[in-house]
Amino acid sequence: MTTERFDTEATAPIEFGGDPAAATERWPGGVLGADDIALISGVCATSLDPTDTAEHARDWWPLAMSWALANQVPRRPSVVCRPRDTGEVSRLLALCNERGIPVTASGGRSGVCGAAIPSHGGVALDMCAMQGVGDIDTVSGIVEVLSGTFGPDLERTVRARGLTVGHYPQSFDISTVGGWIACRGAGQFSTRYGKIEDMVHGLEAVLADGTVIRTGGAPAGAVGPDLDHLLLGSEGTLAVITRAWLRAHPLPEVERRGAYSFTDFPTGIEACRRIIRSGATPAVLRLYDGTESKRSHGGDGTVSTLLVLDEGTEALVDATMSTVHDTATACGAVTADVGLVERWMHHRNDTSGLQALTRKGYVIDTMEVTAPWSRLDAIDEQVKTAMLSVPHARSASCHLSHSYIDGACLYFTFAASPPPEAFDDTHRSMWDAGQRAALAAGANLSHHHGVGHNRARYMAEALGTSLGVLRALKSALDPRGILNPGKLGL
Ligand SMILES: Cc1cc2nc3c(=O)[nH]c(=O)nc-3n(C[C@H](O)[C@H](O)[C@H](O)COP(=O)(O)OP(=O)(O)OC[C@H]3O[C@@H](n4cnc5c(N)ncnc54)[C@H](O)[C@@H]3O)c2cc1C
Question: I need a surface site. Which of 118, 174, 426, 460 has the fewest CB within 10 A?
């Protein structure tokens, strides 16, 4: 593999209320002894620096962000490990498995559910020393990439070869390929390019005992269950992903944009349903409810704005945009200022807002779920009603993004302004109310943020008896339970 290596650091550091080196733990526990640390240090680069361990004690889970402002972290790892290749990952896991040491992999630590928090201490396995792009098969559109590679480095490198992977999460700048795969992420252009699971051609990963495996590697297959999908969404609990082969598309020839205004959110949802069911798949199809439309685009709080963007070959894009226009107007929409799309494009990767609001004392968080088209109206209504019934709740709003032939993702943003002593309980209650209302109305547990720590408590409700299958897989692949213990409800 001829690899172009990178050395990028996450560009949006997390804010602490004091010196992170002095941060105290919310979930204190045992630490590794000097003998374990000495053995681990013999395998790969390690750090015991207290600022480093504090930075690896948390991710972008909003509750942990509020704790950080009080200079607290959930749980420090004893040591941060930075392997530089698959062999080092393998030797490290074999050692930790033998000695029963917990290992929590992390990439950009941009996850919003606490998945990368080393909640049982032990080793924080920082994959960001494994950054680079290897072979690019430009004929087939397959790119080999190390799992610690950040979005901009990957995309810049493949674009220089006339390709795009097309995966642009809002956290593009601060998240890694391994994190995208481990959380089954979705980019903002997913309606054309798919979610990350549609982009994975093959994977290299290391099991808990140090065994290196390769999965996938073909355009399609009938060789038993798809093992790529065993690792996709496994959140570091079944294996550590070291390398991926991703599908890439030719760079788009043209781009077209459109904006529409609907009388209300349900009418807009119906238009999106008809657009997608007709076979049109514009890269971006984002419909905002009255509250979010008013906040971002003006209006009276009932009008619902639809932003559309497509890219690709001219004939395909023109046909798609014409289907969008005809369908939207048939549903009573009027065209809106197309400049709204530019405004969204400009701000779409701005990740600064979340912590600023947390600093002001607001509970602020997001909850994304997916469901069949026929259930979306009820889910929208019932989730908002449930969230707003929680004491101190201030707002609950929604937009639709990421559409599929059978349904779409609803993305809720909620806020509350509790007194400081009720902050954590209010956060938990709004989640409980919203997530349980969503499940009861026919939604799944998550569309792309994953489960992590925050949603582990709903896994039995969401999966029913199939959670037993996941647990059996965990026991088979990681019998000593060293890989990211406490996550995914395992
Ligand atoms: C402002 C903001 C906007 C966001 N927008 C989006 C969005 O548009 N779409 C989206 O999908 N997500 C979004 N997210 C969530 C987050 O960025 C994604 O979940 C992302 O994929 C996480 O990548 P990461 O490298 O930061 O992983 P981390 O947060 O470091 O880790 C997440 C999980 O993956 C595991 N993991 C990481 N690397 C590996 C590996 N190599 N092998 C095995 N397990 C591993 C960790 O153990 C953990 O369980 C957003 C987050 C923020 C803060």
Answer: 460
